[in-house]
Amino acid sequence: MVAVLIDDTTAKGFATHMKRFPELYTYLAEIVRRHVSQCHPLILDLGAGPGLLSSKILYQIPEASVVGIDPLLQMLLLAKDNVLQSTAHSFEALQGVSEKIPLKDSTVDCIVSRFSLPYWPQPRESFAEMNRVLKPSGTVVLEALNKEFPRWKLFLIKIRMIMRGASRDVANYHVDAYPHAHTMDEVQRLFTDAGFSILETEGKKKEWRFIVVARKQ
Q1: Rg from Cα positions in the chain
Q2: Pairwise CA distance, residues 35 & 214, whole Å
Q3: Which residues, including other chains, have CB under 8 Å from residue 179's CB and lie 6 or more apart?
Q4: How many CB atoms lie within 10 A of CB 215?
Q5: What is the rounded distance in angstroms from the CA atom of residue 174 to the CA atom of residue 11?
Q6: 214 within 8 A of 184, measured Cβ to Cβ
Q7: Within a domain: 28
Q8: Which of 89, 97, 114, 180 could anchor a disulfide with 58, C-beta 3.0 to 4.6 Å?
Q9: Residues 13 and 168: beta-carbon distance below 8 Å
Q10: Model-level pTM greater than 0.90?
């Protein structure tokens, strides 16, 4: 688990850097849209960060309500601003952690989480919590950093981020999560142990990230 200690400057710098890659969030939002069939779904963005993914989800599914949960108040304040700038649809930002999600049982249609797994101190409890808040047959779309991604490529990513204007703190915040990441097999096991069935996976063994879509049994 990564110790998360970032200030307002690093949070804003991270949001500014990631806004350069809207296609990453658009792609994941499209996967969420494919796995949501309800007329007015409630979608949980777990580890919402600066709200860039929530914005894309609401653009793709304007009839949805999105709850963004993050432990960092700095990120939630940015999320509110970023979502309001891009959409007038329903968004609520809540401070909370994955192992104790501040929502009632069986209230969520879909959970999406992008790269927050390394920051979860108790993954098994977090996966059990996702099962708890999901409605029957609810889905999880989880994009995760790949533990098997070569370390020398991480160094290149860090250098490239700095060359593109990211501060060292922002680069470290992004790259330092990899040593605490999981393999796809480990994530699938966490899902099945928590009572989910795997619907689909995407990603190769040595790629920098992978996606697992699972359904509550």
Answers
A1: 16
A2: 10
A3: none
A4: 16
A5: 11
A6: no
A7: yes
A8: 89
A9: no
A10: yes
Burial of 52 (0-12, 13-18, 19+ CB in 10 A): buried
Range of the domain at 25: 8-216
Residue 1: inside a domain, yes or no? no
Q: 196 pairs with which residues across the strands?
A: 216
Say if residues 28 and 61 touch (Cβ distance below 8 Å). no
Q: What is the pLDDT of residues 34-71, one digit of tens each?
A: 999 899 999 999 999 999 999 999 999 999 999 999 99
User: How many domains are contained in the chain?
Assistant: 1
Using CB atoms within 10 A of its CB, is residue 176 exposed (0-12), middle (13-18) or buried (19+)? Answer: middle
Task: For the sheet with 196-202, list strands across it.
Answer: 90-95, 65-70, 42-46, 108-114, 134-145, 209-216, 196-202
Q: Is the pLDDT of residue 3 over 60?
A: no
